[in-house]
Amino acid sequence: DYFRMSPILNIATYVAKEGAAYELYSVQLNGNPIGKLNGTLPAGQRVTYSDISADGQRVVYQVGPGFSGLSAGLYSVSIFGGASTLLSPSAATGGGVGFTRLSADSKYIVFGFQSKADDPITVYSAALDGSGRVLLYSLAADHTFGNVELSADSGWFVFTDYTTVAPRSSTVYAVPLRGGTPIPLSNGNENAFSPLISPKSDRVLFYGYAPSACDESNLYSVQIFGGARRTRRGGERERRRVGRAASVRPSPAASRAAAGARRAPRHRAARRGQAADGGRSRPAAQGGSAAPAVAYPPRTRSRRTRPVRRRACPRPAPSPRRSEAADRRAP
């Protein structure tokens, strides 16, 4: 990310090589330079990444030996220049800072960190002004992060914890951004991923897959602090059986359309009968003779068109649900 523009101010930041290293600078959009933002870099280090807070006031940047891999340190500085503040813990060779996410209120940043190579990954939340740093989550061995999200109210950090060895599994968690106990939002017997946080920051939508004889995938909506789940299956429900497919029940609209198609020939035959007698088959109340009775053949169904009934995969027991009133009373 060689350059960024402030979302509020007419200022841009960019990374450029002036001398021996790539360093971070800011400039006004009218061309007036502001100056270099990073402090003195260690030998062999360069600015590898930068971003600007939502209020346009602060810049975060990473310093490391190259543009790929982990960075040695994460810093924060005013977009107008000044002293830089180190936000990340110190790292040994092979360790450093991974992913970063800025909060919407421009006060915090969440980042992944490894103290050294092959160490478990940890996640921290740090104040951009350098006033504090909190450990949010520590991964177990052979686990990694994915689908990192911050809520719009800057109150929650939501992510997926993946296993990297067989048997593979994944669990969606939510953690308060200022620190607290991680809350699992998915069940342990399903693989869950791709969480999305609602605009009101009160619920999380994620995809869940339960491997079994009848593989089933669902969308789930759950309160961001845990609690009752609601399943969203419409159209996204997948059922598979080994050896043969399960029968699919048509929608109500499709059933009505099919019923109308079966009745259509009878109505057309009746209209043709009225046309053949010159319209004389009007009701007696209108001065016409009564319509002659039309004999229809008995309705039969050939063996070829008879639907085959197959036993569908059993539905899982529904998750316990609380009332909407209970949802609103939850903390």
Q: What would your notes on this structure say?
A:
The chain is mainly beta. Helix content is about 10%, strand content about 35%. It is built from two helices and 20 strands. It has helices at about 250-275, 325-330; strands at about 5, 10-15, 20-30, 35, 45-50, 60-65, 75-80, 85, 95-100, 110-115, 120-125, 135-140, 145-150, 155-165, 170-175, 185, 190-195, 205-210, 215-225, 230. The strands form five sheets. The protein has a four-stranded antiparallel beta sheet, with no helix packed on it. A four-stranded antiparallel beta sheet has the order 5-6-7-8, with no helix packed on it. A hairpin with a 6-residue loop joins strand 14 (about 155-165) and strand 15 (about 170-175). The two termini are about 40 Å apart. Mean pLDDT is about 75; it is low at about 235-250, about 265-275, about 280-285, about 300-310 and about 320-330.
Strand and helix map with partners:
Blueprint: E1 3-5, E2 11-17, E3 22-28, E4 33-36, E5 46-52, E6 58-64, E7 73-78, E8 85-86, E9 96-102, E10 108-114, E11 122-127, E12 133-138, E13 143-150, E14 156-163, E15 170-176, E16 183-184, E17 191-197, E18 203-210, E19 216-223, E20 229-232, H1 252-276, H2 324-329
Antiparallel strand pairs: 1-2, 2-3, 3-4, 5-6, 6-7, 7-8, 9-10, 10-11, 11-12, 13-14, 14-15, 15-16, 17-18, 18-19, 19-20
Question: Which labels suit this protein?
Answer:
331 residues, mainly beta, four-stranded antiparallel beta sheet, 2 helices, 9% helix, 37% strand
